[in-house]
Amino acid sequence: MEITLTINDRTFKADVEPRLLLVHFIRENACLTGTHIGCETTTCGACTILLDGKAVKSCTLLAVQARGKRLTTVEGLMKNGRLHPIQEAFWEEHGLQCGYCTPGMIMAAYHLLQENPNPSDEQIRRGLEGNLCRCTGYQNIVKAIQSAAAKLA
């Protein structure tokens, strides 16, 4: 099937198998490897992206379902060579260890802060449900999101 979709303000056209997962399209067709493949069952959240502004797990969507949609990956947050404040905050507050979950966490945090610019610790933790980190106790991730909220205020 032929599809056209926009990823990080770039248009991509491709002929794809109807069963191709969106995460594979992003990584293989668009060559954007920041979106990670973890569980392929929506459990880990490493593949979280924005689809028309809403955080979704790209491992359980077919590429054909994203036809005509606007996608944002972690690479799309960076502007003019500068990290987005959320990306900066994760770096500054040590909100990562191995980094595998980080792109998905950042995209979930971005969506959370769009909906709630000043979330409490509890709201941050609830906003990250479905995004797993096996390395940290989440405290620095929460601190990073608090820091990003302050930067964006």
Low-confidence stretches: none
CATH superfamily of the largest domain: Beta-grasp domain
Structural category = alpha+beta
How much β-strand is present in the residues?
Answer: 15-25%
CATH architecture of the largest domain: Roll
Q: How would you state the average pLDDT, rounded? A: 96
Strand arrangement within the widest β-sheet reads 2-1-5-3-4
The proportion of residues forming helix, as a percent range, comes to 25-40%
CATH topology of the largest domain: Ubiquitin-like (UB roll)
| Straight-line distance between termini | 43 Å
- Rg computed from alpha carbons, rounded to a whole number of angstroms: 15 Å
The rough form would be described as globular
For the record, the CATH class of the largest domain is Alpha Beta
* Main beta sheet: 5 strands, mixed
Order of helices and strands: EEHEEEHHHH
Can you count the beta strands?
A: 5
Domain unit count? 2
How many helical elements? 5
Describe this structure in words.
The chain is α+β, with helices and mostly antiparallel strands. 33% of the residues lie in helices and 15% in strands. The chain has five helices and five strands; from the N terminus they run ββαβββαααα. The protein has helices spanning 22-29, 85-92, 102-115, 121-127, 139-152, and strands at 2-7, 10-15, 48-51, 54-57, 70-72. A hairpin with a 2-residue loop joins β1 (2-7) and β2. The longest helix has 14 residues, at 102-115. The model has no long low-confidence stretch (mean pLDDT 96).
